Amino acid sequence: MNNLPQVKVGIVAVSRDCFPESLSVNRRKALVKAYTDKYGADDIYECPVCIVESEIHMVQALEDIKKAGCNALCVYLGNFGPEISETLLAKHFDGPAMFIAAAEETQNDLVGGRGDAYCGMLNASYNLKLRGVKAYIPEYPVGTADECADMINEFIPIARAIVGLKDLKIISFGPRPLNFLACNAPIQQLYNLGVEIEENSELDLFEAFNKHAGDERIPAKVKEMEAELGTGNNKPEVLPKLAQYELTLLDWIEDHKGYRKYVAIAGKCWPAFQTQFGFVPCYVNSRLTGMGIPVSCEVDIYGCLSEFIGTCVSNDAVTLLDINNTVPADMYNESIKGKYNYTANDTFMGFHCGNTTTKKLSSCSMKYQMIMARTLPEEVTQGTLEGDIIPGDITFYRLQSTADCKLRAYIAQGEILPVATRSFGGIGVFAIPEMERFYRHVLIEKNYPHHGAVAFGHFGKALFEVFKYIGVPVEDLNYNQPKSLPYPTENPFK
Known about the structure:
The chain contains 15 helices and 18 strands. The chain is α/β, with parallel strands linked by helices. The chain folds into two domains: 9-165, 3-Layer(aba) Sandwich (Rossmann fold); 167-479, no CATH class. The strands form three sheets. The protein has a six-stranded antiparallel barrel with strand order 10-11-16-15-14-17, surrounded by four helices. Strands 2-1-3-4-5 form a five-stranded parallel beta sheet, sandwiched between helices. α3 crosses α4 (117-131) and α5 (145-166) packs antiparallel against α12 (301-314). The radius of gyration is 25 Å and the shape is globular.
């Protein structure tokens, strides 16, 4: 299922009328060539209609990039640029916009060939603020054709997330389980972000599941699961029910996404789910997430939203894990100390029952859910996917609404270490620099729930820009700060 937007950036060059238009024309052509040579032509469109010098040109350019199917905009200052027309371009464009500017090419052409875009970018940013227009401006937005091509390439995953949110529907089933207030948050910020939500009863889901009994597609779906699990298929008897449930969710998505293009699910998974459905949904959740349809556990709506953003940014499957338990001292001493540059308190285990796709596990086994089986008959807890999560770079992050409807977020880059967990569920040994301080002064201090989204790679730079763009205040956009930068609440005498 195609559940992510394809980004096409319209590159529109602008020019101030007292500067040579040829500067912007030639620099735009050089930028497009540099991008195409490095990244191909699929993600960009060069607006050939005009160089924007006036409001009329701005309208013409908007019509052209709209016809070309562009859903993201790059305003390129080939010279000083017209501050009114160029910011109106971003104001009236229905999608994320970025502003970049051309550097001067050579000391041998600083009279007729000097563009002053370095100066023009200041006026552009000032005018954007006056008009209340959001735009992405890179850390250093002035560069050569090659450097500006790289900036556009870095903008694409940011744009993909922003475009995706505007067409996202979150489908939830049931209220949060008892004693899971941490996963409960006001939905007002979803609407503020342009995200739709459809909240359903788990009874509605149960009815739909029962209507799929005997579905003729079940045998083929079971074969898919058997092929994916391989030798880890330890519970073949539960696969028909899991197949029936997966088909129920996929059909629900098609029947309920309405006018929205993209969907994510916040699912109910306990306490009554097992006794009524007769299994746990973990493996199905992992499969949908592997298809690019994020599914959060325990009706964690903002966890689900976070997963979708990470899927857009990484263009890959993500997962949602509990920030779960400490690494025992003997495991640290035997497998980590002296081998990796982390203290014991930089490490922890990220865990969930079995929602991580097989693509992100070193190996996998279909088993019963051990925690739930402590209070329920084991036969109704079948269907969880266990295995150690693959080692490598990760980004741990979350977007959250507070009880008083304010957005906040955190991002922390680190890695999963190649250390056997010797535990159960979908689990890994995580290492994040200064995790001890981050845990206390961000996760605890800022009242975050225990669920965190995990993207497989270092995507902090893009996530930071996405969160800024959608309105997370900078003071509420937290990260794992180095020791040289104490947190506001950190005791200086500790």
